[in-house]
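Friendly challenge for the regulars: who can give me the structure tokens for this chain first? No prize, just bragging rights.
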Amino acid sequence: MIKTLAAQIKEFKKESILTPIFMILEVIFETLIPFLMASIIDDGVEAGNMRHIYIVGGMMIAAALLGLFCGIMGGKFGARASTGFARNLRQAMFENIQTFSFSNLDKFSTAGLVTRLTTDVTYMQMAYQMILRMCFRAPISMICAMAMAFFINARLASVYMVAVVLLAIVLAFIIRKAMKYFQMAFPKYDELNASVQENVSAIRVVKAYVREEHETDKFKKASQGIFDIFSKAERNVVLNMPVMQFTVYSCILLISWIGAKLIVQDELMTGELMSLLAYCMNILMSLMMLSMIFVMMSMSMASARRITEVLNEKSNLTNPVNPIHEVTNGEIEFRDVNFSYYGDVDKSVLRDISIKINAGETIGIIGGTGSSKTSLINLISRLYDVTSGSVMVGGRDVREYDMESLRNQVAVVLQKNVLFSGTILENLRWGDENATEEECRRACRLACADEFIEKMPDGYNTYIEQGGTNVSGGQKQRLCIARALLKKPKVLILDDSTSAVDTATDAKIRKAFAEEIPDTTKLIIAQRVSSVQNADRIIVMDDGRINGFGSHEELLESNEIYREVYESQTSGGGDFDEKAGEE
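First reply, four minutes later:
Bragging rights claimed.
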């Protein structure tokens, strides 16, 4: 874990080394000041030696200024190192997330990843800054102060030693109790973020069903969970201060009492007593800083583990040693394919799939909810790997291709259509970043998206809000289809991507595909028979198996499932707008 995190220091190594150096120098200069002050009192004030006062006073000023400079430089370099470390952690996590396969992403919730990229990294930033500054400053300050105290008077310094041991035992007990609460807090942050994300993304549904109060209560419970845990932790942590104050004042009283007796007996000088009291504060404040370090470290350890999980997660989909970069055609073949999301053949969602699809064919895929239609097409673009068997595209196993090259030639319009904030043109160019405006317009004509785009005030420069909230479901689907077409793929997969489009527009899209991209293999998953009945062949899925494969007419005669679906959808007069679609 430490090695993984330390690798993200990268270009901030210099700052990470300079920070503790400056903090140690600051401590040395600060430690000299009480010693010089004792010299001024004992050898200057009491002896009436003004020259000594001026010389040592000048040395004190110089030590204070040098200590101030070192403190400023330590703070500057520490801030740069910690913020840079946090930036690198976020960047490394985000870049690694981009490499994840769908199965990798299934291990982490969206809210959990957001928490890791925000809250967890913030804790690591604070912890790293504290390590660079306090973690070096506190122990060095305590050691230097203790050494100077023993140099001045070992008898009085032994009081510090007893206080330090007792205080360390008490603080260790307090911190140990607090740590378990801090470790429980981060899963609660995931719950809170999940509540916010779900509410904001589905705010229209929340308002439509007047569930604002329910969502508010849910958020309050998640927020209260974090409050309760941190309250328990803080109730333990706040005991640090009264314990510290009791120890400090006890030491001051004890040293003052013993020191006064030693002064009367001429075994100790007044200035030495003053410096011992100053060192007392240094030692005990160093202990206080150490306790804060332990608290912060206990909080950040949970964050460190969660961040390391993301950084160490490796995609289970990798390119072969010498990948193929060119997909020759859109021919697809499934050979004895079994697939399980968990890698367990006994829990396969696809079983014994063996079919061949010719390049340029239009294939419909139909089946009930949960029949694994989407799982089937996910294997073609290698979003998942088969558990056994093989999937061939262009006559080669998909595992032999460079994944980027394969996915550029297998365009998928998923069930959940996503548009990003930006103009329509910017969204379309996700398919091809170098596409001209004319190419974008042609793709929109094929997807029947030009009809509504040209009616918008800014046309293709219309700004799309985050998530595409300012366009309808059908408009969003057509824009996503146009975006996929810009890739000029060998294989085009539409995963129920026209479900929000009326049958008239659906028919126009299918007609445009047949006329304009005849060489592209088209796979259309649909719930409506009318969307697939004109396909060259239709796959009927049932419980992870292929129940039927043939033309519309063949399946009506031979496949009971397809016939039942067809009759149930046509017995009431057909889909809405069906005649318009045929025309």
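The chain is about 65% helix and 10% strand. The first helix runs from residue 2 to 6. Your move, everyone else.
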